[in-house]
Fold this sequence. Notes:
- The protein is built from 5 helices and no strands.
- The protein has helices at 3-13, 15-20, 22-46, 53-61, 65-75.
- Helix 3 runs parallel beside helix 5 (65-75).
- The radius of gyration is 17 Å and the shape is elongated.
- The termini are far apart.
Amino acid sequence: MSSAEDLCRLIDVEPNFFYCSSIGQQAFADVRIESRAEDILRVLGQRELVVTAEARKRIESCRDLDVLGVWLDRAVTVSRTAELFADG
């Protein structure tokens, strides 16, 4: 049986175990990270700021929720996308 099938069986049989397991916790963290990156890009888009391919890649590849949180806060006020990544 594949690991995907094992995972599906685990979710069906023991849903609480899945949510408390390291696999479940990592899955939730991954979703939060991807969602935060999408939020940043959405805010920048709504503000009609130019997002270069390099900036998009940097945002989408970041795996640190704290950094993404800082960038999301900055996305609301920056005048250029590059300002997201400024130190300080």
